[in-house]
Amino acid sequence: MQVEASGGLPVPELEGSRLASRGDGAIRRRRQRRPRRGAGAPQAMAAPAAGAVQRLFEACREVFNGAAPGAVPPPAGIERVKSVLDGITAEDVGLTPNMSYFRRVVPRGTPKITYLHLYKCEAFSIGIFCLPSRGVIPLHNHPGMTVFSKLLFGTMHVKSYDWAAQQDTPDVPLQGSRLAKVKADGIMTALCETSVLYPEDGGNMHCFTAQNACAVLDVLVPPYDDGSGRHCQYYNVSSSEVSVGGSTLLPGADRYELLVESEPPEGFYLVGSTYMGPRILDH
């Protein structure tokens, strides 16, 4: 999903593809201490271990760069990136639930959602969605994309769909709607595993509703790109009971609903802000 100043997605990235953490005050340079006479040459210090955000970037770069656009990454690569994401915490990206992103209150409708841009290239993008309580990311798709989502903190309701298989599609006109299979419809709480959706499976179309302050770290493979046909499309549920002439089209345990393309809901605002956590070093 991309970000816009208001309305819907896409969003202009802030200050290029990489953002450094900055403070408000001036940076003071420390003078380099000279070794004392007779002390000998200073010993070389070991390089510090890469932080969690840097490890995520390096895993994504090694797994996704060079892959054909729209191709599903290999299972071993997916597990590698998922494993790194599973270990990332809100502290690793400098977020806490008491930040202003998560304290927006509106008397009516839903509050604004903030997107923090970490990195973007042709192969993948990394960003964080900050949802106040009652914040909603409407039902939208990810065409030709594999998406990793890690809930850093909070509790949210997730509803997701995949398009119905050809053999499940009824041979009747659906008046502009398209049949979709409900993949998930329930509550997700932080400390759960990273979720992965695919171009044709895993809940490619989803909607998030925050039950309290929530932060979601997303990796999109590849990113949205209108020129390449990866346009973010929104949907409304046309019907929760798929039937024609009073007869259920698809009996059985699986749930199906009719989705119809729509504009972003009125009052939905997704705003970009500067990421202030540990920077990504793209060597």
UniProtKB/TrEMBL annotation:
Catalytic activity, reaction form: L-cysteine + O2 = 3-sulfino-L-alanine + H(+)
The family this protein is said to belong to: Belongs to the cysteine dioxygenase family.
Alphabetized UniProt keyword annotations: Iron, Metal-binding, Oxidoreductase
Compositional bias ranges of the Basic residues kind: 28-37
Entry keyword Transmembrane helix: no
A Pfam family assignment: PCO_ADO
Species of the source: Urochloa decumbens
Any GO MF annotation of the entry: cysteine dioxygenase activity
Region (Disordered): 1-46
Top-level lineage group: Eukaryota
EC numbers: 1.13.11.20
Name assigned to this protein: cysteine dioxygenase
Cofactor(s) recorded in Swiss-Prot or TrEMBL: Fe(2+)
InterPro entries: PCO/ADO, RmlC-like_jellyroll, RmlC_Cupin_sf
Single GO biological process annotation from the record: detection of hypoxia
